[in-house]
Amino acid sequence: MLSDLISPETSPIGTRLCREVLPSSFLQRDVEVSILLPPAAAETAAPYPVLYLNDGQDLERLQLQPTLDALYARGAVRPFVLVAPHANELRVQEYGTAAHADFNGRGSLAGAYTNFVLQELVDFAQTHYKASANAAEAVIAGFSLGGLSAFDIAWHHPEVFARAGAFSGSFWWRQRAVGAGYTPADRIMHGLVRARRPHPSHRFWLQTGTLDERGDRNENGVIDSVEDCLDLIEELIKGGLDAQHALRYVQVEGGHHHPDTWGRVMPDFLIWAFGQEGGTATLPAPLPVVRLQLDPHLAPSIVPSSAPGQVEILPLVLPTDMPSIVPPPAAADLPTRQSDFAMPISRPVEGDFLPYAGNYINLVPEGTDPRRALRTQPQEIHIIFAGLSEAQTEQPYAPGKWSLKEMLLHQIDSERVFTYRALRFARGDGQNLPGFEQDDYVTCSGANARSLASLLAEYDAVRAATVVLAESFTDEQLNRRGTANNGPATVRALLFIIAGHELHHLNIIRERYLPFLQG
């Protein structure tokens, strides 16, 4: 075990950052751990309350140390120790639910990670940093998959952690893929919550952002990350959790699935977890969430009479002493769509595309509407890249191959080209459109000089525009055709090509890049 005190602070309000390397027999690797100690003036002989925070490698991106310094300076939090193990390239395997990997085999090491936390990390923090062994003084939290992991560990081990926080938690975690017979009952964490009652000591802080993603599996106008979290809250309440005293739900209007949003909302979480006595009263009341279901009878001008009937949504029971109501997202924030994809787009036939494109089209599963695939794919892209560093995304898996950044920008460029073709043909413009040389585009792209965050933001923007355009096409427009790269293409085929092209590259990432980076 190596210890490296980074910056021993002499300021009475300054936190102190330490770094340790903890060998783990469960994970079969050395785990770097960042520790933030309370200000020197707040030192005590008694054990400290403790926060175990997943994704410790992101403390700087979260601006966590300056945030803590500011909270200590104004006396907003009690002294506590923060213990933050770093994730590595195996993040998508080590985080998840210990009992179940997801449909794609992710989370296969979540059980080992849980054992690492319970049997190695906690003991280390208590032995070397005076972390409290009292479960009521121990909090575990995380972001995205790390939030799911934290919730799962606290849910099943209240004797160690009475409280948990999940920032944009990946509560979509499911045992069946969307388009392969998926139903809401396939969400793994929801099922685990249904299987047992909450412990009397359980307390949860849950956060989502209204721009966490754009996926909307059931086309009800509520993005999946928000709906999955609200559904989890409903399961907690059904199981007996007292929402008024044991739950804080924070929905950030305009919040993204990104450390910037999580860092900005961090003070709310830290005051909830470690606020001075009476300090939580200074927090704004969590807003109740009104779950609306569109009634076609009240909006005949925008909902066709053939629209399917309403899907019953059980009401969310929230504390009654919360005065405000969260307004629904503005229409401009929601992509337009066909009524409900009641009739999936039929597959293109021979003569609708060049032979090479059949390789992409065939990757889209039978019965899958490409519009739905376009909505759900970004989630997997973000999950893959969330576990990788900037340096890793700039490495080719073999000489002469693209880096992951170059591949991502290639996907963006190709989607723009294919979407442009679909637009031209849908508008009745059938003239021959030129092809493009993908390797020349990548060489001139400068992808490796850009940050991963900027590429993902561009990817999200392009995909959002693609989804809006794709969902605007009528049956007649889907059948229109033109010529591109000296061969035929229908609008219908181009939508399948866009979705299949991304599936092609996702397969390459899983089969070639990730094994290389993990090796």
Automatic annotation (TrEMBL):
**What InterPro entries is this protein classified in?**
AB_hydrolase_fold, DinB-like, DinB/YfiT-like, Esterase-like, Mycobacterial_A85_antigen
Which is an annotated GO molecular function term of this record? hydrolase activity
Q: Which UniProt keywords apply?
A: Hydrolase
> Residue ranges of the DinB-like domain?
374-509
Q: Under what name is this protein listed?
A: Alpha/beta hydrolase-fold protein
Q: What is the organism field in this record?
A: Hymenobacter mellowenesis
